[in-house]
Design brief:
single chain; 10% helix; mainly beta; two-stranded antiparallel ribbon; globular; 123 residues; binds zinc ion
């Protein structure tokens, strides 16, 4: 099967089209921002996802300021707002308020615990 490559939106490196992460710059949005729920492309500054309707601005669990759900870092404090999928074979970072891993479909039950640990670690 042929693999299609597309330039990363952040650094320009050619990245395989189904990649979630740019291998060069590590960006989690190599082809633009995506909804953490349904993976539809979303625009920064949008109110809600056009695909599933989820809110795109959610309060950061560190600083409480509204941050864009398509990005992996808080717009205000710059800290990562990603938790890890609890499936050991997956472990994909997921946006902190999702209930299900987009990569493997596992329900994420310990999100609160992970968030608490991250907040403690950040002090
Ligand atoms: Zn890149
Ligand atoms: Zn969506
Ligand atoms: Zn923040
Ligand atoms: Zn997973």
């Amino acid at each position: 099967m042929a693999t299609y490559k597309q330039p990363c939106a952040q650094c320009g490196e050619l990245v395989e089209k189904d990649s979630r992460v740019c291998p060069k710059c590590g960006s989690r949005a190599p082809f633009g921002f995506r909804c953490p729920n349904c993976m539809k492309p979303v625009e920064r500054g949008g109110e809600a996802c056009p695909g599933c309707g989820r809110k795109l601005m959610v309060p950061c669990f560190y600083c409480g300021n509204p941050t864009f759900a398509g990005a992996d870092k808080c717009d205000f404090c710059g800290r990562s707002v990603m938790i890890r999928c609890e499936n050991k074979r997956c472990g994909e970072p997921q946006f902190f308020d999702v209930t299900k891993c987009m990569a493997c479909g596992k329900i994420i039950k310990k999100a609160k615990k992970q968030i608490n640990n991250m907040r403690k670690g950040a002090v």
